[in-house]
Structures
1.
Amino acid sequence: MTVISAWCSPTLLLLLFSPALWAAEISCRNEDGEAVDWFALYKLPKHTKGDGTGLGLEYMYMDSLAQQWQPGRYLVNMTQGALGQTLGQLYKAYESKSNNTVYAIYNDEVPHSGSINSKRGHTKGFLLLDKSQGFWVIHSVPLFPPFPEDGYGYPASGESYGQTAICITFAYEQFIEIDQQMQSSNPKIYSCSLPDTFQADLPNLQKLCAGSRPPSGPLRRLSKLQSVHGEAFLHFAKSDSFVDDIYVAWVAQELKTDLLAESWQHSGQKLPSNCSLQYFVYNINLIGTPLNSTFHSIQDHSKWSVSMKDEVQWTCIGDLNRAAEQAWRSGGFICTQNKHIYNAFRRLVIHYESCNDASMWI
């Protein structure tokens, strides 16, 4: 007889494993407030061609339950949206001043600061966890999210361009590994809480929360992570001492696949498509959405890439652009071979730039 069967009546077992109790755990949340293993979100640019032209607050959404792009039911600045539902848990933890949770919010462009912190990682995200589990959100939106004391909102500066976000729910032990990744990526944390009982497990987060830089770590570090429901991820974290284009020099070669890459192309030092190593990286030029709208990469601030061919089905979402000055910035990407995420992002690509500057249509 198991311990559970010896101690628990059927009624108590039903209560223990009821969805309502599981929903109380820290997790990525969908637009109904339900716990999900992961979600991906693509905020559309303000000006697009076709049926999707809008305010710059609409987004496409998919998660572990709804495994293809669908229109967001809310605007990205609403608390009912997936980002608002997920971040709301962090804000509640802040308000409760609980010693049972850890949270950290980071961005190289901090709300109200009016400046970019180029000495820290070109990283944007937030996390919340307790001793059981938590979530990690990686996104591309400057000046987001607001300080907890300010409540939820979305910056006007983030409306014009496309943006991406990915949320993954992890068991507590995975955050000990994520802490090691932060030693290389060196994010600028502007709001955090790290109670004493967590500090031994999260020494790099402790340093970053205190405004210090962690001790020098590896130039680059690759971590294998697993979501609470068993989804496998790879996280690439490079330091500012690894001076190279992360897409070409590391990610494509490590994953052994040619990549189609989407990143911010307003920089004067934009990098061209690169075919110099075994695996190539091509810049995406034009995106087409399932909402019958299209937009050019010049309208997009997101950072993601997908395998050129369908055999390996890698998708990576992260922090860094394909720009010369980004070689000197720390940051990274989280990558997955989830076929639904791959198909969703791969089908967005309409046109890319070949290595001889020719225009290539998918």
Note: The longest helix spans residues 82-96.
2.
Amino acid sequence: MSVGDAAMPAPGARERIATRIVFFIGGFAISTWAPLIPFAKHKLALDDGQLGLMLLCLGVGSVLMMPLAGGLAARFGCRRSILAAGAMICLCMPALMLAPSIPMLALVLAVFGASMGVLDVVMNVQAVIVERASGRAMMSGFHGMYSVGGIAGAGGVAGTLALGASPLLAIGGMAVIAAVLLASARRGLLVDGGDGDHPAFVLPRGRVLLVGAVCFAMFLSEGAVLDWSAVFLTSVRNADPATAGFGYVAFAVTMTIGRLTGDRIVQALGAFRVVLCGALVAAAGFTLAILAPSPLAGLAGFALVGAGAANVVPVMFSAAGRQRSMPTHLAVAAVTTMGYAGVLLGPAALGFIAKLTSLAAALGLLVVLLVAVASVARFATRD
């Protein structure tokens, strides 16, 4: 038993609500930036290459902090770690629009990304502890709230801009909302955040390495739909550019619905069947998009990818909490880092492969990867 275990009772309803709020904040905060990227590009007169480097700063900040975030949770507890990261995120949000120069924007994006990286890891540490105490599947619902937050954040900024607000006012208002939600969750955040005294960072090992590899494959697939679905529909299926974006919308809607209903699915089918069937359904979705000649079939394929992938990653985080190869906080940090690397590196690698072969062939590799995930489902989910 750790010091934190003795200091507070077992997590209950208040902690479950707070965990959902923090996941909502994570999706909400990161998504407010997306609609404002064109404004930042125009303000600082960035060309496409410079913008790409700016966006890379956000990802690099996250990846550098994620491996260390588990150690922060163990040393300071989930509550202090989440509150500190959340406060920094709320400060960075308006600063994204206030940055007067390219170096300052790069710095703000790096700090924003680092804070998001800490939040991503520690909220999953809290989620693992809360789910374990509840004795039932809860992780899909937590991750579903992240998706809902993403829709609310991007939609809130876009709606505020449509009403005539300035970019600074739009994101400033969203930062205030995030801060209020963070304060409301405070009492339900866990004082504890780890399994006793351990190093701040160790390399993933044992089943954690396998769980992290599955997350890498699933996040890579998600990133591929985000970055390449519209390009695929327009360049390969000759879809109207005005409607090609609905490929990602279809994916996001089915994924969100799948996660919000996923706890009952996991409870009914079990972790192994959810990962096995989910990976195969996602593989079938990519296969449909690649082989069927119509744009409508492509939309249906990407919707299938979302439905299949929805609950695989939440189940993997639960598995990271159950394994005994590594302490929970370090395992969750490792799995989060490996998964995020899939989002950060995967789509760029697919672009390189597509240039050498074709975009359809590059997406076809994801089918192979998802079938591989299905093949290791039993090993990845066993207790």
Note: The chain has two domains: 3-188, 207-381.
3.
Amino acid sequence: MNKKPNKRQIAYEVIRKRIIEGVYVPGQRIIIDQIAKEVGSSHIPVREAIHQLESEELIEYTPNTGAVVKGVNDEIYKESLQVLALLEGYATAISTPYLSTQALETLKDYNQEMKEALSDFDFEKIGALNRTFHFFIYSYCPNQLLIKNIEQLWDRIDAVRKIRSSFTLKRTPKSIEEHDQLISILQDDKNLIKIESLARQHKLNTLQTFIEQQES
């Protein structure tokens, strides 16, 4: 027998996708009745989905309002980048032994697409390709809990990335160059300490660019 659709999971995916894509903005209230009607469920699966998103810090409860989309302020954004630098550096390093020649060619293709998107000032595509580039590497990572934590942090700050187009324009050319450097060391060196350091610095460079923009 086929399993019945998991209404909690459906509600979770609907709400999460809208938060990440900016359809639901920080401070916006989540209407449980509305979501329940959309997914064809009672309130219970929706509330369970909201609790899961609350644990991922995408939603918070406020007095007299209920569940609202949680905003990411500048300090949280910077702290998130610092944590990601550590997690992504290690994840990249331990993925390295599993990356095939074909996988490295795929990374080159993604980075070339980023260069083309930059010439078209297509920031939305750049953001999607950047995520694809890094998570393609992580798809080879043997530590799934590590990747889950990275994914949750990316989701948490993705909405911030979407509204900072000037920051994206300043950072992207250098980020693409750093991707080329990373591909080169993944292909030719395979020194895991160097790879971890380079991947960690890649994220810290994003943090530094953000700080410089704040101060300017």
Note: The first helix runs from residue 7 to 20.
